[in-house]
Amino acid sequence: MTQKFDVVVIGAGPGGYVAAIKAAQLGLKTACIEQYRDKEGKIALGGTCLNVGCIPSKALLDSSYKYHEAKEGFKVHGIEASGVTIDVGAMVGRKNTIVKNLTGGVSTLFKANGVTLLEGHGKLLANKQVEVTGADGNSEIVEAAHVILASGSRPIDIPPAPVDQKVIVDSTGALDFQAVPKRLGVIGAGVIGLELGSVWARLGAEVTVLEALDKFLPAADEQIAKEAFKVLTKQGLKIRLGARVTGSEVQGEQVTVNFTDANGEQKETFDKLIVAVGRRPVTTDLLAPNSGVDLDERGYIFVNDHCETSVPGVYAIGDVVRGLMLAHKASEEGVVVAERIAGHKAQMNYDLIPAVIYTHPEVAWVGKTEQALKAEGVEINVGTFPFAASGRAMAANDTTGLVKVIADAKTDRVLGVHVIGPSAAELVQQGAIAMEFGTSAEDLGMMVFSHPTLSEALHEAALAVNGQAIHVANRKKR
């Protein structure tokens, strides 16, 4: 007998599993389909984010920074720590434990909320029927009143550097090195490339990042990007812009990479090479030809502002649709779609999705950049505050970076908050909360911030927008 559900979700990543849980909480009979299996061959929920993305990379970033701090940063505190070493296997093992705990936690949440897990590959057929094909090749058809497509994304492969997961790896393989490579190449100076490059650079690798674009972090505010380039270069990352990889040759346990830059043809040899040039949506065998769901010209599932596809009752969320490929964006879309299916008028503010790069210092922003606003012809006032002037940052020996607040010159409404520095992601989230409620720079300046905290830097930057900062010299108005 065919199983029938109110909602069937294909994919159990941060978009899919959240959508499934929310739908079940709203009283809808819900199933979620997932095929990903861990190294032990067991179904693992949580998608790229929990298994081979956000969570494991942060575990390695934190471990590697603690090692770096113990080796390089303790002395200033009067702490002598000689002979500090890193056990890479133990570090990776800790990462694996965290992943296992979290993916297991999603399974527990499914059970607690009454979500039915269907193991296998999900494929949308006509009339909102979904085919579920198990690992054994057997298939069953389930019927749904509503379907949510949340199949996620996978790393982009490039012909000049084919991944073998031994010498040339993608972002997944870079999480499982069992030793620190002496020479590490990274293709791509985006979020993933910089984060993974930082991990292994802290542990002693000589890291070279090859970026095809001539501009560093083009999505970030130019002032913040410039500071990030300076800081990361100082940390030892050799970032080569305008470097287009043309080929590679693996010889034994090393790889020679050919690329062109402003100086012509170049080549470098590495012990490991990470390919991190972005991700593409997973739509392989997701849609039957008669499903009715359309893809756009870039291979993403076409949706409107409410994540509705071209088929009534079929939705798509997360990395498989337009917009930023961010876990929190996918999760929030999942919540909104579940609520709309349940009859609520939920919507999502795509203008205020925070972006974060978890290097140290962190780089984060929300809202618009200074260059974007100027291109739009918007008159703005800008306030900045350096962490070098923050008492809390000094106490933590973590004074690199600044907070930048951009406000409309006429209305004083905050249009962007950009941070490079300690706890940048948390400070930007404060800005996002304030901006969601239409804050002005004056509003932020009038609030009481506890002292001494890093968040005082946001307070001072907001004051600086209108030339009222207390703990840093204000710019003289022209």
Automatic annotation (TrEMBL):
Gene3D superfamilies per the UniProt record, alphabetical: 3.30.390.30, FAD/NAD(P)-binding domain (3.50.50.60)
Major site of localization recorded for this protein: cytoplasm
Assigned GO CC terms: cytoplasm
GO BP, sorted A to Z: 2-oxoglutarate metabolic process
Family: Belongs to the class-I pyridine nucleotide-disulfide oxidoreductase family.
Subunit-structure text: Homodimer.
Listed name of the protein: Dihydrolipoyl dehydrogenase
Annotated source species: Pseudomonas mangiferae
Gene from which this protein is expressed: lpdA
